[in-house]
Design brief:
Organism: Pomatostomus ruficeps
CATH architecture of the largest domain: Roll
Distance between the termini: 66 Å
Structural class: alpha+beta
GO molecular function: phosphatidylinositol binding
Number of strands: 7
CATH class of the largest domain: Mainly Beta
Strand content: 5-15%
Oligomer: single chain
Protein name: PLD1 Phospholipase
Pfam family, one: PX
Number of helices: 10
Helix content: 25-40%
Order of helices and strands: HHHHEEEEEHEEHHHHH
Length: about 270
């Protein structure tokens, strides 16, 4: 313990902050504001300590994960642990489990809500298991009658019907309201059909228009390139373009319309 105390960096808090021991029922109304300030200071001091801040229980209580504050992923919605049921894919070959009620498996996952998608991660490794895109068929249902699950929550889009199980009806209602309000506010452009049947609204002055114009202009030359050369050539001019982007949505034919597969097929 002596060695460990000497290794602690100066300036770091070494003691747990304390909370008042008196019950809330004995506190006078004029002292409510100071009581709230004590709780705020307590939580602030807890989050200043790396040992407690990085503890999974603290992150679950606050509702954050390693993806919460990445700016390029868009605004942050609600997060938390949820029980996910297997199956529900509308892509041939991905729904082998879950055809009957006896085949269903429940897994504990961390659900993250963003403006244009939902994703869930494995709690032990943080690996992203699945991303559910917001599209024109996006909807949320709640209740045992709709989901065949007690305290169930069903989230649908064009490619999947995701079934979640909550601890109570109030918990399911909290998830439904949080997801619906956030998507309606930040992802409303993805909920309707746009020009040419696109899933996304028209954006002015974007690199996407430059890419489309470039592909149309140099289509013959592009088809003559080998697949690897074509991918390299595109990355030379569009380094932020992902080879795994799907050029047609919804994804109903596997990887057929993924960019790298298209280039390989054309070459």
């Amino acid at each position: 313990h002596t060695v460990r105390r000497q290794s602690i960096k100066r300036g770091e808090p070494r003691q747990m902050p304390s909370l008042p021991h008196t019950a809330e029922s004995t506190v006078r109304e004029e002292h409510f504001s100071s009581r709230r300030k004590q709780l705020e200071d307590y939580l602030t001091n807890i989050l200043k300590m790396p040992m407690y801040r990085n503890y999974h229980g603290t992150m679950e209580f606050v509702g954050v994960s390693q993806l919460s504050f990445i700016h390029d992923l868009g605004p942050k919605g609600i997060e938390g642990f949820i029980m996910k049921r297997s199956g529900g894919h509308r892509i041939p070959g991905l729904n082998c489990c879950g055809q009957g009620r006896m085949c269903y498996r429940w897994s504990k996952r961390w659900l993250v809500v963003k403006d244009s998608f939902l994703l869930y991660m494995k709690p032990d490794s943080g690996a992203i298991s699945f991303v559910l895109l917001v599209d024109k068929e996006f909807s949320i249902k709640i209740g045992q009658k709709e989901t065949e699950t007690k305290y169930g929550l069903q989230i649908d889009n064009l490619s999947r019907s995701l079934i979640l199980k909550c601890n109570s009806y109030r918990h399911a209602q909290w998830w439904r309201q949080g997801i619906d309000e956030f998507i309606r506010k930040h992802g409303k452009d993805f909920l309707t059909e746009h020009r040419f049947g696109s899933y996304a609204a028209v954006q002015e002055n974007t690199l996407a228009k430059c890419l489309v114009s470039w592909v149309v202009e140099y289509e013959d030359e592009l088809l003559c390139l080998q697949a690897t050369s074509a991918v390299f050539f595109i990355y030379l001019y569009f380094p932020r373009l992902s080879p795994e982007i799907f050029m047609k949505r919804p994804v109903v034919e596997g990887n057929r319309w993924r960019l790298d597969c298209i280039l390989k097929r054309k070459a």
